[in-house]
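Support request, please re-run this one:
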Amino acid sequence: MKLYLTSIVLAITASVNVTFAQLRANNAISTNIAGQSAFLDASANGFSNGANNGKGLAFPRTDLTVFTFATATTSNFNFPTAYDGMIVYNTKAGSTPTTGSGVGSQTVAPGFYYFSNPTGGATNSYATSTGQWIAVGASPKVTIGTNEVATNTLINVSAGVDKQVYAIKGSFTTTGTSTSVTIPSPSGMTSLYGITIYKVNGTGNKVVYSRDLYSYNIGATNNAVTGSPSMSVVYPADTYDYVLEYIK
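Re-run finished. Output below.
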């Protein structure tokens, strides 16, 4: 009975595919692939019958500037990897939606992208919110600007739980008499991961560079004290740039 029902389902599926042209193959599709490392083999003989008759794989086209996952939270039965490794061809330049498409607000351009979500599986309740779109073949470099960006760094905060590290660029101004400065805390920030303070050709043409703060108070005004963990330091009156790295 099970074999009979299975045959009916396969027959109906094949009929629908032929009717709506949702699935096309150069030759009859064989199911003889059990026990192999690949689940799909498109390299069979007969794919090309002439010098100008080569074959390619046509990917679905997707506009990542409006795309959101229909199932933002999956399960161990449905997409247990939370779409990690899914490939699309993006058709439009712009930014991904703020929510519903991984970490959100990512800059994208036309081309192939894959969804990188290595922590979205069982360790993170099968959520897509931890993933990000990465251009296939693109440089792993991340450009840090005045808008929040997800870096390529994940921090393991507890067994099986990773946190995404974000970064943002800004500047602060000092009076030359106080160690207190204002370094705004990005929305959702829960912990400071690191900071780089730099100033090329600053006061007296001196180059300033530091990876330290004496203290940092999330969410407060005049929330940072310049210096090192052992002592506060008064910076000469000037405007300094910084890159703030943090987790949420």
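Residues 119 and 162 are 7 Å apart (CA to CA). The two ends are 54 Å apart (CA to CA).
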